[in-house]
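User: Can you predict the 3D structure of Equilibrative nucleoside transporter 2? Sequence below.
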Amino acid sequence: MARRDAPQDSYHLVGISFFILGLGTLLPWNFFITAIPYFQGRLAGANSTTKTLGTNHTSPADTFNFNNWVTLLSQLPLLLFTLLNSFLYQCIPETVRILGSLLIILLLFILTAVLVKVDMSPGPFFSITMASVWFINSFGAVLQGSLFGQLGTMPSTYSTLFLSGQGLAGIFAALAMLMSMASGVDAQTSALGYFITPCVGILMSIVCYLSLPHLKFARYYLAKKPSQAQRQELETKAELLQSDEKNEIPNSPQKAALPLDLDPEKEPEMEPEEPQKPGTPSVFIVFRKIWRTALCLVLVFAVTLSVFPAITAMVTSSTGPGKWSQFFNPICCFLLFNVMDCLGRSLTSYFLWPDEDSRLLPLLVCLRVLFVPLFMLCHVPERSRLPILFPQDAYFVTFMLLFAVSNGYLVSLTMCLAPRQVLPHEREVAGTLMTFFLALGLSCGASLSFLFKALL
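Assistant: Sure. Here are the predicted structure tokens for Equilibrative nucleoside transporter 2:
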């Protein structure tokens, strides 16, 4: 809700800027996991000029466990910087955090694009790629948290726009992969074009961020007291914490942490000289109230990241060589997951079931564990232990539909229910705790993916 004396957002330039910034924050994660077939081909020692960008390589490349490592090294920085946020954000100026992170991410993506043209043995290529994944996601975590702090000073509409941009990142990456594969050029040029695309996206994000100080509307809100913005940097989703508002939630595991929706008009009432009547909320007391919901969030993400993309990216079509086989995984794994996950998250805009007092929520969350063996028994050709019980493509597509929708809905639901279980003055602490458990679930799932891969 904008203040009455606030200037107008001319031509919606500030809204467009935050939308593009939201898109830019999650392009790195999505472009790396969507390009898993390309990296597998390079690690298998394949000549990139003769192998198709979307072709799966599941045998020699698996000696590196690329799927597992890229997932783990993408999620550990999120957990680490969730713990270090308070220290970092007080010591490093906001402009340095945001602009510096964007520039470093851009340079690392340029390096990734250049490596497409460089002949390199699998070992050094794997080491360089893993280092890039770690640093890109580390700076991405800093970037995300810093932008959430800025959103805390803006009207809630801009949080929704930022979320919408993040929500499109996974779909955008999957479509970029499909267009690269369908372009008709050689695989090396196709891969180069694919990795140049996020470079353009990051450049646009830099331009958008640099333009904000020149826009009167942005200056009006971003000039708020730093203490107010810092207080909101580690809190969770604005729209998700209000049950009477319609929410739009992003569609990737990393997208669930956002600042609380505290109306800017109410901020001046919170003076430091006048402590709140209820006193400082106790982390332990708040945790006792939300621990079931928090553990549900951990389990949802642990199940999701344990098989996606580490196991699901290895599934191939049973129809044999051909166009469908080439496009099967980009469409049925990455594009389908992102679209249906986004749909699942949006369902909480219309209803919240089961409610916070129901025992059905833990049951539904636990039932998702069944997806682990279901995906492991799909058509993954290279395996040594488990049989293939679901060879047809229809099985994998059905499992992925239910898997993605349930992930999106249950993540959104748990983030909605947590603040309803605490008192109003405890919601900030609840949001911070849920952000921590979100990152913990992602890291646990990434770690478990090594075990499930070894069981194949």
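The chain is about 65% helix and 0% strand. The radius of gyration is 22 Å.
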